[in-house]
Design a protein that fits this description.
Largest sheet: 9 strands, parallel
Structural class: alpha/beta
Distance between the termini: 42 Å
Bound molecules: zinc ion
Shape: globular
Helix content: 25-40%
Oligomer: single chain
Strand content: 15-25%
Amino acid sequence: MSIAPSTLRAYRASLLHFHADPAFAEHAYSWFEDGLLIVDGGVIVAAGDYARLRPTLADGADIVDYSGKIICPGFIDTHIHFPQTDMIASPAPGLLPWLDSYTFPTERKFADPAHGREVADFFIEQLMRSGTTTAMVYCTVHKESVDAFFEASEARGLRMVAGKVLMDRNCPDFLADTAEGGVADSEELIKRWHGRGRAHYAITPRFAPTSSEAQLMLAGELARAWPDTFIQTHVAENCDECNWVKSLFPASRSYLDVYDGFGLLRPRAMFGHCIWLDDDDFARMADTGAAAAVCPTSNLFLGSGLFDFERADAKSVLLSLASDVGAGTSFCMLQTMNEAYKVARMKGSYLPALRMFYMATLGAARAMRLEGVIGNFAAGVEADFLVLDPAATPLLARRTGECDNLEELLFALALLGDDRAVAATYSGGVLQWQRPA
Ligand SMILES: [Zn+2]
């Protein structure tokens, strides 16, 4: 009689993960200086002190030694455009000229499935080398771009959210769909991808100015018909855009209210930017369970404005961090934290590093209603994690060597770290990226 080989594997390192939001709870996280993470069949079995957990394993157990490094749950980026990979760092004076000069010509190429797949593979490799294991991804108006993305993420077994952009006005003809056609394509893609393996579909109106009332209405109906799909769009990113929305939808109380009127505020709805919302808007987001994707590198790059963390927290809005590549200037959530910290300071508030690591992991999972699936190391959660190297560069090594506590260590990683600090990335228990020696 043969016994099936065990798939049990353990990882020794310092471990960090969260149980709650450190801004609102006292015992929000666990930190094990000499920790052990035990994984079996792509899910977490246990996370704790090495000395306590080692005796639970057999003598010859498979233990990967990352001593001196930190293992935390995989980063989650809640707003990113995969077709904009090739136009990251393109100069333009603001959002609307940037869309016309770079975004629309670049997105046009995604009618070709081969091009879409080539970019999707490169894009996913950038996520992996940055430690990002889940993302909420905008594709283009072409349904082929969604197939290309999900085929690439399925090949690696990743938990990803993506959707076809809906856009039936105020855009070049070569990127326009129609109200009925766009929603029919979305439903076809939902049936093909939503819930297949680790894929989730997101109904994706680009933003209110590029969707007719008819298209937004049909998108709202689709969201009601498929209540566990995601919704993603942009809201209140910059002042010119807000004024434009006011002229297009004069009957709505606010930009956010346009989406509310079409039934697009609900759990699993993720709104990018949220810079120019008022207190009533934030309260409405909290009431409906909609969440904010805060995109600091993008907001600074385009000069859109500064997100107000304190004001959003006062209404208990679900917050997450996002890169918004191609307007965002880095795929790396460490660099996103770096800029989020400075944005908070410019608004007179303060973001501890522990809070930022929470927002990039469990906070995002909660905002996406995926707690228990991804985001921390509770037993049964999927084994998506990264290995951070606090000595990745001479400067990081020197600075982290002087740190007296966890907050200082994480802060140094957030402010000085980038993809060089990611030694390895695992998704579903499978090694996806290993930094070259
Ligand atoms: Zn965006």
